[in-house]
Amino acid sequence: MGLLGLAAVNPDAQIVRHAAAGHLEAPVDVVYLQSLSDDAAPAVAALPPGPLRDCLSTRPATRPDGWTSWNLGRHRALRASADRAGPAVGDAACAAVSR
């Protein structure tokens, strides 16, 4: 029951939404946000256009090896990455977002 509740909350998406809210006093840790699982992809796709979204959108979603490795988070990430066509962003631009 606890795992079902955790899956419903989607902690990776919550982390992206909280970091992007703009009320944090510390700089945004883009490297950490880029390391989140595919579950965060719909929250990244929902961000307003800008440098943070572009930096977080650079990581491609992983494709399943077969039906046994399918999961909902990966499916949503692939769908979100297909819907967005953001510019290629380099590491220097993403580092500037962290400041």
Topology of this structure?
Elements: H1 2-9, H2 11-20, H3 30-34, H4 41-45, H5 51-56, H6 72-83, H7 91-97
Question: Can you offer a commentary on this structure?
Answer:
- InterPro entries: DUF4153.
- The protein has 99 residues and is mostly helical.
- It has one domain (2-97).
- It contains 7 helices and no strands.
- The longest helix is centred in the last third of the chain and has 12 residues, at 72-83.
Summarize the structure.
Pfam families: DUF4153. InterPro entries: DUF4153. The chain has one domain.
Class by helix and strand content?
mainly alpha
The percentage helix is 40-55%
What sequence of helices (H) and strands (E) makes up the elements? Answer: HHHHHHH
- How far apart the termini lie comes to 40 Å
Secondary structure: number of strands: 0
**Shape field:** globular
What Rg, in angstroms, do the CA atoms define?
14 Å
Unreliable parts: none
Provide a count of the helices. 7
Mean pLDDT: 75
Described by strand count, sense and barrel closure, the largest sheet is:
none
Strand content: under 5%
- Domain module count: 1
